[in-house]
């Protein structure tokens, strides 16, 4: 027999290729198991080519490392066939480990088939030398190589299946497993080579027309390393892309979840909002119809919340609303829905079948809300009014139930508040009347139904007239003249107060411009700003454009802001008022004495006058407390260099008392009632504006 030898360097390269091919196979198994649809088929095909090429290359480099005392060569067709066998065996292996499960029976069959494929690849590659006489194999060593191939295949399949999932330690584990698998593959190959015997005088038939081994080893090593490297690089890049895509998908899902939550919940109290309540109300109606059940819908409105908000500001009001929401939630069942409709309105959807049970629950909520609240270091007391509508008796649809519960709530307020009322059909008349009034108010500006009346303001005690205050009135086509206290709160609640306020400002500036042109150049025009209008983003621009429109000097316009509005958010109010002051507009603090002003902020406000509320003037001559309060306000205003205006002057005694205290100007029915512009000018011309003031 010929004595054989090996090129140590090529043997080492064959081992490295085997380890790299094993690592590539493990990585491909992971990519295939995580891929979906058509991508999985592409990964299987590409992985089979890369893995098969790697295993075959290890085998062929090992054969190139082998040498005999005779020239050797390899038949191209048979060599390619051995490569195809390696790719087919690799495809089967990757397909097998890509399954969801790998039971022992499937692992055993897979090991047999894959081992047979590797053995076939190896011995087909040996046959490519076309030796004459043929290669003889030592049976025991041949069988050992087959056993090694099967055992190595089984171990490789088990390792690949268990290391296919991504985890923090998967890469070092794959590297270690690749080393073990590489040695197993090399061991099988060289065991098979050891089984081969070449008789003396043997001739290699592929030495003359086959591929020369001299340059083939280098080409195969370079090509194989390139194929494996490309496969690994693509796998790593795809894994990173998949990881980033997965992270993006997770972030997107979280963002969508958060957006959905925000769209369905109140941002302040975290309670369900109107949208989510309506959905749950629809579901409750469907469930009640299906199971022939009943439920209650309770509409709640806090009593006294506006006073707290005006006195202590929005921040304290918001904290109070959160406390109210928590207290209501603690007194209802988990399956009930408590939602915030906006402002200080809450709705409770309760699965109670009997009115008596609804009354018990409402009474429980009333008692809970009535307890004092500890908010921002203050003890606050409020109550609530509750309207109850029962399904299906008080409405068969969501809108009917909400409207009827709302109507019952308003009726509860009219009874004195801090009570609950069940809906009755007669309550609907009031609700429909209010809704119709809102619709009419929306059209009032377009139909020119709003008018301004002007109440003169006099230098104390008897004049002359130094200006007027613009007061809006609604001349309804069928209801006649509607008092402001009936439609102004409605306008504030619906937001219509902003366009109404802009119209009042425009009309008042137009009128004062006309009067100044007529010779009353020293008159000023006072216009009230609602809280909503004062905080509106366009206020400054609206005032500036209106003054420019009528070519008015800013100092002829006085904007009256209530004390509670100015103190609601003192820092924000200070910025707004400062901008108006810098423009040249005069600022008057209206209803002074009714709120809870901080003198620290009051002295910083760029106001030019304080206006004493009519509530203190009414009983001025008979109530010593009111007299003391008015005296203090006048003294405070004089200390701050502010003009003092008193409104609501109806008697000569009030006029004289206020004049003695030091009020600069007076306003009231004693001196002049609100009247149209034409009536005011006529009264002035007849010199009877002062009524009996003289």
Automatic annotation (TrEMBL):
InterPro entries: Biofilm_reg_signaling, EAL_dom, EAL_sf, GGDEF_dom, MHYT_dom, Nucleotide_cyclase, Rev_trsase/Diguanyl_cyclase. Residues 6-199 form the MHYT domain. Residues 293-425 form the GGDEF domain. It catalyses: 3',3'-c-di-GMP + H2O = 5'-phosphoguanylyl(3'->5')guanosine + H(+). Residues 434-688 form the EAL domain. The keyword Transmembrane applies. The keyword Disulfide bond does not apply. GO terms for cellular component: membrane. GO terms for biological process: cellular response to nitric oxide. GO terms for molecular function: cyclic-guanylate-specific phosphodiesterase activity. Keywords: Membrane, Transmembrane, Transmembrane helix. Gene3D superfamilies: 3.30.70.270, EAL domain. The chain crosses the membrane at residues 6-30, 42-66, 78-98, 107-125, 137-161, 173-193, 213-237. PANTHER family: BIOFILM ARCHITECTURE MAINTENANCE PROTEIN MBAA (PTHR44757:SF2), DIGUANYLATE CYCLASE DGCP (PTHR44757). This is Putative signaling protein. It comes from Paraburkholderia fynbosensis. The lineage of its organism: Bacteria, Pseudomonadati, Pseudomonadota, Betaproteobacteria, Burkholderiales.
């Amino acid at each position: 027999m010929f004595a054989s030898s090996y090129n140590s360097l090529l043997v080492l390269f064959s081992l490295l290729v085997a380890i790299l091919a094993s690592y590539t196979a493990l990585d491909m198994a992971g990519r295939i198991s995580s891929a979906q649809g058509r991508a999985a088929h592409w990964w299987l095909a590409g992985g089979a080519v890369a893995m098969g090429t790697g295993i075959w290359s290890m085998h062929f480099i090992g054969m190139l490392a082998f040498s005999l005392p005779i020239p050797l060569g390899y038949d191209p067709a048979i060599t390619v066939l051995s490569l195809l066998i390696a790719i087919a065996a690799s495809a089967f292996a990757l397909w097998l480990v890509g399954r969801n499960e790998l039971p022992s029976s499937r692992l055993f069959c897979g090991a047999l088939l894959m081992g047979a494929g590797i053995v076939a690849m190896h011995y087909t590659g040996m046959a490519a030398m076309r030796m004459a006489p043929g290669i003889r194999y030592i049976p025991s060593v041949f069988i050992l190589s087959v056993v090694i191939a099967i055992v190595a295949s089984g171990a490789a399949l088990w390792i690949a299946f268990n290391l296919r999932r991504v985890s923090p330690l998967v890469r070092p584990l794959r590297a270690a497993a690749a080393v073990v698998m590489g040695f197993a593959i090399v061991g099988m190959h060289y065991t098979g080579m050891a089984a081969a015997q070449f008789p003396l005088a043997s001739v290699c038939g592929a030495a003359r027309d086959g591929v020369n081994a001299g340059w083939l080893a280098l080409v195969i090593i370079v090509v194989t390393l390139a194929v494996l490297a490309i496969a690994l690089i693509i796998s790593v890049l795809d894994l990173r892309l998949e990881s980033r895509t997965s992270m993006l998908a997770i972030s997107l899902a979280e963002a969508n979840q958060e957006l959905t939550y925000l769209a369905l919940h109140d941002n302040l109290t975290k309670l369900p909002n109107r949208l989510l309540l309506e959905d749950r109300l629809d579901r409750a109606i469907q469930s009640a119809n299906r199971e022939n059940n009943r439920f209650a819908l309770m509409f709640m409105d806090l009593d006294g919340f506006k006073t707290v908000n005006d006195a202590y500001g929005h921040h304290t009001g918001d904290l109070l609303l959160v406390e109210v929401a928590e207290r209501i939630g603690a007194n209802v069942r988990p399956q009930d829905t408590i939602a915030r409709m906006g402002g200080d309105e809450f709705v409770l959807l309760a699965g109670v079948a009997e009115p008596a049970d609804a009354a018990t629950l409402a009474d429980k909520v009333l008692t809970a809300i009535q307890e004092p609240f500890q908010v921002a270091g203050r003890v606050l007391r409020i109550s609530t009014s509750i309207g109850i509508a029962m399904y299906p008796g008080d409405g068969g649809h969501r809108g009917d139930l909400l409207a009827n519960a709302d109507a019952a709530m308003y009726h509860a307020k009219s009874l004195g508040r801090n009570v609950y009322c069940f809906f009755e059909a007669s309550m609907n008349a009031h609700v429909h009347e209010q809704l119709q009034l809102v619709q009419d108010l929306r059209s009032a500006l377009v139909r020119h139904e709003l008018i301004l009346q002007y109440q003169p303001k006099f230098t104390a005690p008897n004049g002359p007239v130094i200006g007027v205050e613009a007061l809006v009135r609604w001349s309804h086509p069928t209801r006649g003249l509607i008092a402001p206290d009936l439609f102004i709160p409605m306008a504030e609640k619906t937001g219509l107060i902003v366009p109404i306020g802009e119209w009042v400002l425009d009309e008042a500036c137009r009128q004062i411009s006309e009067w100044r042109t007529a010779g009353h150049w020293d008159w000023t025009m006072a216009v009230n700003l609602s809280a909503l209008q004062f905080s509106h983003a366009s206020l400054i621009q609206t005032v500036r454009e209106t003054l420019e429109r009528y070519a008015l000097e800013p100092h002829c316009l006085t904007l009256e802001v209530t004390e509670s509005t100015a103190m609601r958010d003192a820092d924000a109010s200070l910025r707004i008022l400062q901008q108006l002051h810098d423009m040249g507009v005069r600022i008057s603090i209206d209803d002074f004495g009714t709120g809870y002003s901080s003198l620290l902020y009051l002295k910083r406000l760029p106001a030019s006058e304080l206006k004493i509320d009519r509530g203190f003037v009414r009983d001025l001559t008979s109530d010593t407390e009111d007299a003391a309060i008015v005296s203090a306000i006048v003294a405070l205003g004089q200390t701050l260099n502010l003009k003092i205006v008193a409104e609501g002057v109806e008697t000569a005694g009030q006029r004289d008392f206020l004049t003695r205290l030091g009020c600069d100007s007076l306003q009231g029915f004693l001196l002049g009632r609100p009247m149209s512009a034409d009536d005011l000018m006529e009264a002035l011309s007849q010199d009877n504006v002062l009524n009996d003031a003289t």
